[in-house]
Specification:
The chain is α+β, with helices and mostly antiparallel strands. The chain contains 24 helices and 27 strands. The longest helix is centred in the last third of the chain and has 13 residues. The radius of gyration is 29 Å and the shape is globular.
């Protein structure tokens, strides 16, 4: 296993909440609850519902008690509903999460089993027992109506207590068939699925309707009324007129004999529908906010669960934002009808008639894949000088063609399950240039035109292929070099080191003013944010003045794909697209240890001699951690000037070197500290192997060509440090102005924290 994988695996395992089971308490249930700070809000429920005597009496109960975190994570709408409950309603909800007369321990729980609660209607408790995250042998996680037991088997004098991490929706006593017509939650708008589809299916000819009425256990994905309203009336009429097709579409929305809550489903897990060889696949995407986003795919249609985990008498209901298994829009119609991508829809209206006809093809005779940037992605570039999708036809045509695969390629990105090293490629309509597709953590990434984009909504099935929603615009790098590095979780450690050594400011795009989008770093939270907390590793609050705004660099010759020339004024794709970036908050927010009070001062007094473009070989964070644990690394860390000198060895100023354009063979380049390195390239495309050599040290380029507004970033496997660096004569450097020795030794203290 590579060092990168080892570190990420360790982080994932460390992030698994630890479960503490099997405690023995001589206290009553109420006394045990009252003494626990994490159950203070649950205790207030007991007081409000006047249930304290019940939890101190002689009757025995199994109690599932939500912790304070569960209360805090409730949505505003859900919290308001619970706050408005009457005393009797709160009491019934508490009893619906308790079992009377027995003590159910986790080792007695069976997967996919059902218990009857002590609620007024003996509401069902659907129990799930699943292998723990990470797959540790013999370790399981336990769920009740989707809530995970985080501290279980607390034995009390009158029962057993299990602490859960989620407040389930109140269980409905209605069966699915009745709930669809009259949901318990007034805010749910889901009746059109019954009225517009289910109602039209002949009950005498098909077994689908009885399933909704009598199935003992099922999971249903019901399109919201808003989703139903998106379907043209003519398409609904066609579907209702074809009973066989209507029956198939309805069957694609449910799974029998299982009550599936999203909390225990794993990414890419599949479940069989009632149609032969057709499955529903779950996809989970991590977000910075709670909860994560969950999608389901059925027969070419991908839908997001917008309101999930509603437990009813015979299963679980999830509200989705699309009809599953029914494609009715062409690719172009999908974009034009979706307000979240209206900006790119306006760009597509300027496409050639041939392209528009291809995207509009309702019959699907020409299968296509269209990548669509969100409005937010477009907003990051639309207002910048030089980006003119009306007057600059060359730019407009390039961007449009970069986002469409060659005709005949209907790409399902969920089927791509390979990391970057094994990435798949497809040819776009732009001069045969390729897009790379690969998985990283739970996300799918696509790269084209030196831009890496995350697929924020994958595999939206349309009549003529698929639409993929992405968070960047291909062909226009949106961030400067430091921000590009900062936003990559795998590089965040290196970003902090570079900033501590004042290289972050040196590598800034000076055409971007403070507050511009290209200098805004959205700090990665999935893995490294927990370890390198911003409050502990604050990134130098430099007094960043508003630098001059560069003139437009987007003329019609800027995007010439055949420029293999690596002179100092290389303009390919305008990596100095100074206006394509988002202001980096990391260097401006409350990042305490890295200089809330600007501890380094204005490190660069004169910016006139600073290069306008760079090629940067960024050491991945795993390698940085390993280096700093070595004897050589510990020595280098004691000398910030020396450490900075070594990091400058990874920077080539005045040049933007794209590996996909670099010819095979050996190439010598002078680095920012005046030394020479050799780039050795073998092969092209995904088979290209690039190695950097400095003295006896070699390191591989493991991720190439991440474009920035002022250059390009390549990720390397190891740091270019050699034993001779212990005693080598080094200097701070003539290009950036010198800072005092006192200030530099302040850097030492910061770097040691890493």
């Amino acid at each position: 296993m590579t060092p990168k994988c080892l570190v990420l695996a360790a982080i994932v395992v460390a992030s698994i909440p630890q479960m503490v089971f099997g405690q023995v308490s001589g206290l009553s249930l109420f006394q045990e609850i009252a003494k626990r700070p994490e159950l203070s809000q649950y205790r207030s429920w007991l007081t409000r519902a006047q249930l304290e005597p019940n939890f101190q009496g002689n009757n025995r109960y199994t109690v599932f008690a939500p912790n304070n975190t569960a209360f805090q994570q409730m949505s505003a709408e859900k919290r308001l509903r619970f706050e408005r409950m009457l005393r009797t309603e709160i009491a019934n909800y508490v009893w619906s999460l308790a079992i009377f007369g027995t003590t159910l321990q986790t080792n007695s729980m069976q997967d996919d089993s059902v218990q009857r609660s002590h609620g007024g209607n003996q509401e069902k408790l659907f129990i799930a027992v699943k292998p723990s995250v990470g797959g540790q042998a013999g370790v399981y996680q336990y769920y009740v109506n989707g809530a995970r037991i985080v501290n279980g088997d607390i034995h009390c004098s009158n029962g057993i207590l299990h602490i859960i991490n989620y407040i389930p929706e109140p269980v409905s006593n209605k069966f699915m068939y009745s709930y669809l017509q009259n949901p318990d939650l007034p805010s749910l708008r889901i009746t059109r699925f019954f009225n517009d589809l289910l109602f039209y299916l002949p009950e005498t000819d098909y077994d689908t309707i009885p399933v909704f009425k009598t199935a003992e256990k099922m999971t249903l994905f019901v399109p919201s009324d808003e989703a139903m309203a998106k379907v043209p009336a003519s398409k609904l009429s066609e579907l209702r007129a074809d009973a066989v097709k209507l029956n198939q579409v309805i069957k694609r929305h449910y799974i029998l004999k299982q009550a599936i809550h999203t909390s225990w489903v794993v990414h890419r897990q599949e479940f069989q529908t009632e149609l032969p060889n057709e499955k529903i696949t779950f996809r989970k995407i991590k977000t910075d906010n709670f909860p994560e986003r969950v999608y389901v795919m059925s027969e070419g249609v991908n839908a997001e669960i917008t309101f999930g985990n509603i437990t009813v008498a015979n299963g679980v209901l999830h509200v989705v934002d699309s009809i599953l298994g029914y494609r009715y829009n062409s690719a172009l119609q999908q974009v034009e009808s979706d307000s979240t991508v209206s900006s790119f829809a306006a760009v597509l209206r300027q496409a050639s008639a041939e392209i528009q006809n291809t995207l509009r093809d309702q019959m699907g005779s020409q299968q296509v894949t269209l990548f669509v940037p969100t409005n937010e992605a477009m907003a990051n570039i639309n207002s910048l000088p030089g980006v003119d999708f009306v007057g600059n036809r060359t730019l407009t045509d390039m961007v449009i063609r970069y986002h469409i695969l060659e005709v005949g390629n209907a790409l399902v990105v969920m089927d791509v399950n390979k990391q970057y090293e094994g990435r798949e490629t497809r040819r776009t309509m732009y001069q045969g240039q390729s897009v790379s597709i690969y998985q990283r953590f739970n996300d799918t990434y696509v790269e084209a035109g030196y831009v890496r984009a995350r697929v924020v909504r994958p595999d939206v099935g349309v009549t003529n292929g698929y639409v993929q929603y992405i968070d960047r615009v291909f062909g226009i790098p949106p961030k400067d070099i430091p921000t590009t590095i900062c936003e990559d979780a795998w590089l965040y450690k290196t970003y902090l080191v570079m900033n501590g050594l004042t290289l972050g400011e040196y590598l800034r795009d000076r055409g971007l003013t403070q507050g511009s989008p290209g200098r805004t770093c959205v700090v990665p939270s999935s893995y490294y944010n927990n370890r390198y907390n911003q409050n502990n590793y604050n990134q130098n609050n430099y007094n960043q003045n508003n630098y001059r705004t560069s003139t437009s660099r987007y003329n019609q010759n800027t995007y010439n794909q055949n420029q293999n020339n690596y002179n100092q004024n290389q303009n390919n794709y305008n990596q100095n697209q100074n206006n394509y970036n988002q202001n980096q908050n990391n260097n401006n927010q409350n990042q305490n240890n890295y200089g809330q009070n600007n501890r380094y001062g204005n490190s660069y007094v004169d910016y006139q001699d600073v290069p306008q473009e760079f090629t940067v070989f960024v050491v991945n964070g795993s390698a940085m951690e390993y280096f700093e644990e070595t004897n050589l690394g510990r020595t280098i860390m004691q000398d910030p000037i020396r450490y900075r000198w070594i990091m400058r060895r990874h920077v080539i100023p005045y040049r933007t070197i794209h590996m996909d354009k670099l010819p095979e063979g050996n190439h010598i380049f002078r680095t920012d500290n005046g030394e020479e390195i050799v780039l050795k390239k073998n092969g092209y495309g995904i088979r290209a192997y690039v190695e950097i050599v400095f003295g006896r040290k070699r390191t591989q380029v493991i991720h190439m060509d991440l474009g920035a507004t002022n250059g390009v970033v390549h990720i390397v496997r190891d740091i270019l440090a050699v034993e001779e660096d212990r005693t080598r004569a080094v200097s701070y450097g003539s290009r950036p102005s010198a800072v005092s020795v006192v200030v530099l030794f302040l850097v030492t203290a910061v770097v040691k924290l890493l």
